Amino acid sequence: MSDLSLKNIQTIKVAAQYLSGHERRLFQAQVAFDYLEGRARKAERVFGWCRNNVLVGLNELRTGIECIGNYSARGNKKSEKKNPKLETDIHELAEPDSQADPKFQSPFAFTRMTAKSMRQALIDKKGWSNDELPTENTIGNIMNRLGYKLRRVQKAKPLKKIAETDAIFEQVKAINAAADSDPEAVRISIDSKAKVDVGDYSRGGVARSKNPVKALDHDTNVKKTDSIWCLRS
């Protein structure tokens, strides 16, 4: 200790701050071994270092074995890990949302499964109090981690072919053949591609009546459209 001046102590403390983990512990242990008789308590008193870290460093220096820190266990744990019941309740509330409940007992029967509605459902359906639950933002993060993320609604894809498709066309082919051989049959095709507004419009039409039929031309307030059915024989 007599070999260390105040300036030397300050220099060693600054040097230790530039190191971390295993390297810092080895440096602190070597300083304690060279100047402080390998005493961790003296290192704590002189340099302000944690004596437990110095002890670990002395053991590492003696054995040559590096101690690996359990960094993943540090810090604040996720809410669903601290309280597994919260994760279970969210699963139980979210899973039935994929289909309408026959008894209409699902809390999401008429609302989207948002973080706000989930938090309220936990209070109403699972008996949680407002103070026990994390914030709405945290509930949303938990739902994302559990796989209940916001996704765009997927459009239904029409079936291009079903198991009965071939049988249907065979039946149509047979009926067409029967109609072609029957001189009394009249074939009619129906086309409904055009869309028009439903209402009292003239559209250039005529009516057989004593008084002219009135049609709308202003402020029509169209509320519905329908298809024009074209019949061709």
Written description of the protein model:
This protein is mainly alpha-helical. Among the domains are: 6-63; 79-145, no CATH class. The chain is 44% helix and 5% strand. The chain is built from 9 helices and 4 strands, in the order αααααααααββββ. The protein has helices at residues 6-17, 21-35, 40-47, 51-63, 79-82, 84-94, 115-126, 136-145, 165-181, and strands at residues 189-191, 195-197, 225-227, 230-232. The strands form 2 sheets. A two-stranded antiparallel sheet has the order 1-4. A two-stranded antiparallel sheet has the order 2-3. It is elongated and about 125 Å long. The mean pLDDT is 79.
Please give a handful of descriptors for the protein shown.
233 residues; elongated; 44% helix; two-stranded antiparallel ribbon; mainly alpha; two-stranded antiparallel sheet
Query: Which residue ranges are poorly predicted, with pLDDT under 50 across at least 5 consecutive positions?
Result: none
pLDDT averaged residue by residue: 79
| Classification by helices and strands | mainly alpha
Question: For the CA atoms, what is the radius of gyration?
Answer: 41 Å
Strand line-up in the sheet with most strands = 1-4
As an assembly, this protein is single chain
Task: Note the main sheet.
Answer: 2 strands, antiparallel
Annotation field: number of helices: 9
| Percent helix range | 40-55%
> What is the molecular shape?
elongated
Topology as a string of helices (H) and strands (E): HHHHHHHHHEEEE
Tell me the fraction of residues in β-strands, as a range: 5-15%
